[in-house]
Task: structure prediction
Amino acid sequence: MSSTLETGSTTAGKTFLPTYDDDAAPPVPRGSLGGTTIDEKFVRIGTWASAFGLAWLLTQRLLAMPGLPWFLIMWFVLGLAVTAVTGMLTGGLVEVRDRVAAAVVTVGAMLVAAVLVSALAFVVMRGWRPLLHLNFYVDDMAGVGPKDPFTNGGILHAIVGSLIEIGIGVAIALPLGIGTAVFMTEVGGTFARVVRTVVEAMTALPSIVAGLFVYTVFIVALGYPRSGLAAALAIAVMMLPIIARAADVVLRVVPGGLREASLALGSSRWRTVWHVVLPTARPGLATAVILGIARGVGETSPVLLTSGAASFLVTSPTGGVMNSLPLYIYSTVRSGEPVAITRAFAAATVLLAIVLILFVTARLLARPRRTKKPRRRRSLDLLRADPLVEMGPVSPRPTLTEENT
Amino acid sequence: MTTLPVQDASTDVRPRKISRRATGADAVFVHSARAVGATVLVITGGVGLFLGWQGYPTIKHYGLSFFTEVDWKPDADVIGIAGVLSGTIEVALVAMTIAFPLALLTALYISEYAPARIKATLVSLVDLMAAVPSIVWGLWGFFLIMPHAAELAIWLQRNLGWIPIFDVKGADPNAAIPDLSRYAASMFCAGIAVAMMVLPMSCAVMRQVFSQTPQGEKEAALALGATRWGMVRSVVLPFGRGGIIGGAMLGLGRALGETIAVLLILSPSFEIKPRILEVGGNTVSSLIAGRFGDASKSQLSALLAAGFVLFLLTLLVNTLAAVIVNRSRSGAGTDA
Result:
């Protein structure tokens, strides 16, 4: 290699190494195309700072608009105005529009975040006191009056009831829901289309109507007493279309090439489903199912009609009335007693914690298996098949097998 | 030397038989999957048919007056859903008026404006918001929002009271101490709580559609000198129009069926009124939740009929949403 270079250098042109002039002026750094310059940052922060001052002056000194809400509204409006003015200083109308739009979009998103945080913080703030007592987790409300102090009584019966009801509900809805999704995507045919249409239609069923259905059939017509089983059935009826629809969405984005490769290698259809399709869709399915469970745990209306409310621990699903967390919260708030309302908020905190745990589990399961060096962003899979859009009509891209059927 | 196979003319050549019929374990798989599908079809379809079948006697008994009668007095044999149905629609519309712009802005922020680092976190937050139980939103609306909403309602009546929907009967907004009880427990307050429940769902649909915008078109707009807003307005929003409308309608479908927050906040009354700031109102779902306990057989049938009407309404809205989203450019076939 080196010899050819040497011989070549005598015949062909010479290679010049660049020379560096130490006395030359330092090069101007290239302007960054993305990101914001210090100037822009200063303008942006200064805009909102000046709007803050103006809003304070207007609401607290000049106009009679006491109260935080007015201040925030004025801050927002004045911030937009100052943004427009500073935009006008540096650019034309196009720039003004761009900046005002960016401000509106950002403030809108921040407002939503503030609402979420306010709801979570409010519930915890109102309900933290009973949570400090151990008996709140290991006792039930048998013989405890609404005005009793927090050292008496607890919500064990509601937690256990919720877990039993959702457990039975999931045991019914999960196999049926995923089985239906497998049927709709992997078997196909005219009948599958009918099933898909009906399942999609039934996602529109309001949860209260699902509860009323079970109440009418199970309790009024068949004469069974109100029980945890009836509540579990109501939850299952409510969750079944949701899980089936979400699992369907997830299974449909499994690349058709994988299925075809498996079939081409000679495996049978059920092996393809069991060893290729389901493992590929595992994270998405887990997310779909767990979000469905989170929804089922928190739903009050089907339980309200079917389970009745016991104030003591019931562990048998068929053994008469049974309480659950949402129902306990609802009925305790309705009593209107301040102590009882605090208890309800504490129970709501527990419910939120359960939902949060389920939610985090779903997110962990949804991560790709190799977590060492994530090549792709974690959110990519979720963006493509978001089980949250359980009722969403956003059909995923048709895969090859879809087109063939 | 290579020899060509000699075609034997005497044996007739037939294509080999290909059967698409599943055999062995595959047959078991196909049939059991079909059985599961049939079971689910029977269960879910059965619910719909049952509701219609149970509600039929009521509609036959009351005829058209079931849809035009405002009051719900089973003792006097006067039953109609005009009042609750109008209340349902009003609460849902209030919820959508609040939720739609917020959902759109949040979806735009997540897909176009947010720094790439926090995008996944924001998506998770919206999902978390959807997972927050409705009873928690009910508590939030009842204890935290209602007092403030009443003040806002007084302000709205004082300044915009000449518009019928902002009017409140029997309350003077200019009084030194306004009668707050006339402004609490209104459809407006219930609508705020319901809005927070439908917002994440609308937002998820919109964001998903926005994220499918062809990257090339976005970059082309930027390369032609468009600002970020110019790019959003000329590429993202037209592309996602179907998703925006569809997401909003899906949210509307969810809002129509919300029960527990409405039951907690709204004080029940049976009338058709456009005055959303005024105390009282009712929705189909809170009617069912409030009246099922002491209902006789015929009243239960009436409740089921009301539930069936609500279901049909939700179904109509959802189907329209699905058609709009699927017919638009967004969604399927966007491999750009």
Summary: Chain B touches chain A through 117 residues (CB under 8 Å). Residues 330-336 of chain B have pLDDT under 50 and may be disordered. The first helix of chain B runs from residue 25 to 62.
